[in-house]
Amino acid sequence: MGQFSISDLENISGIKAHTIRMWEQRYGILQPVRTHTNIRTYCDNDLRRLLNVATLCGQGHRISKVAQLSEQELASAVIACCEDPHDYARQVNALLAATLEMNEPQICKILGGAVQQLGFEAAVMHVVYPFLQRVGILWQTGSINPAQEHLVTNIIRQKIVAATDQLPPVHPSGTQRWVLFLPEGELHELALLFMNYALRARAQHVLYLGQNLPESELTAVCHTYQPHCICTVLTAVPERGQVQGYINHLAELCGGAKLVLYGPLMFGQHLTLPTNAASPRLMTDFLTLVDELRKGGK
């Protein structure tokens, strides 16, 4: 069971601490316990209930009515209300609550509805990415277990692969060619999978090499495929102190191809990028870069 402070609940749910206290004291929606120093702590059930309550109140339901619902009634009401394609916060909260319950059908229903209403790329950008950021907070606070994290990761992975398979094929001639890969030992693939989708949706030809690629293989890949751009995501590999050396080696291996470097290891330290490299901070920045390269023809 996770242990949360009220500030943890505020950060995860987006509900202000003073509102949480009022809901707790006036309506009894949460049941915290107190430490020996009289500090409130909350459990997984408290977080899940708060997320569901916040979802309904965000739609305009009165807290006095929502507080009277049973857990089953609350969950059913959340499923029914997550149909507004532009109410991203409500959809994210509903996904978080379903994840904590390990409710795969509900996760799939919410994601499927967002994709149907917004289109795949917009659903990922507005719903999936904010959701994954919140999952990261849950992971850091120790309130989500590996099984829950693996469940949502694999569902999202399946959605991206299925959407990519539905795109029309792109012939390599007359378009830019991209190589996408993860470094040897790197297994965090979701961002790279979405990049693959986004590039193919923009009629770019992609050689997708996936996870765990030894960098020594890139020389032969570049010689055979002659890519315009090579893209990788640095999440956990290499070690933070080895990132600069890895970037320099990639630049040597990739010749004249443009190097696109993405991921958390690219930030928070002083790195010197080669002249042929770019490092978009956000996925929106990556998409903008792709569009600019398409317009520029290079």
From TrEMBL:
<keyword id="KW-0678">Repressor</keyword>
<dbReference type="GO" id="GO:0046872">
    <property type="term" value="F:metal ion binding"/>
</dbReference>
<dbReference type="InterPro" id="IPR009061">
    <property type="entry name" value="DNA-bd_dom_put_sf"/>
</dbReference>
<protein>
    <submittedName>
        <fullName>DNA-binding transcriptional MerR regulator</fullName>
    </submittedName>
</protein>
<dbReference type="GO" id="GO:0003700">
    <property type="term" value="F:DNA-binding transcription factor activity"/>
</dbReference>
<dbReference type="GO" id="GO:0003677">
    <property type="term" value="F:DNA binding"/>
</dbReference>
<keyword id="KW-0238">DNA-binding</keyword>
<dbReference type="GO" id="GO:0031419">
    <property type="term" value="F:cobalamin binding"/>
</dbReference>
<dbReference type="InterPro" id="IPR036724">
    <property type="entry name" value="Cobalamin-bd_sf"/>
</dbReference>
<dbReference type="InterPro" id="IPR047057">
    <property type="entry name" value="MerR_fam"/>
</dbReference>
<keyword id="KW-0805">Transcription regulation</keyword>
<dbReference type="InterPro" id="IPR036594">
    <property type="entry name" value="Meth_synthase_dom"/>
</dbReference>
<dbReference type="InterPro" id="IPR000551">
    <property type="entry name" value="MerR-type_HTH_dom"/>
</dbReference>
<dbReference type="Pfam" id="PF02607">
    <property type="entry name" value="B12-binding_2"/>
</dbReference>
<feature type="domain" description="HTH merR-type">
    <location>
        <begin position="1"/>
        <end position="72"/>
    </location>
</feature>
<keyword id="KW-0804">Transcription</keyword>
<dbReference type="InterPro" id="IPR003759">
    <property type="entry name" value="Cbl-bd_cap"/>
</dbReference>
<dbReference type="Pfam" id="PF13411">
    <property type="entry name" value="MerR_1"/>
</dbReference>
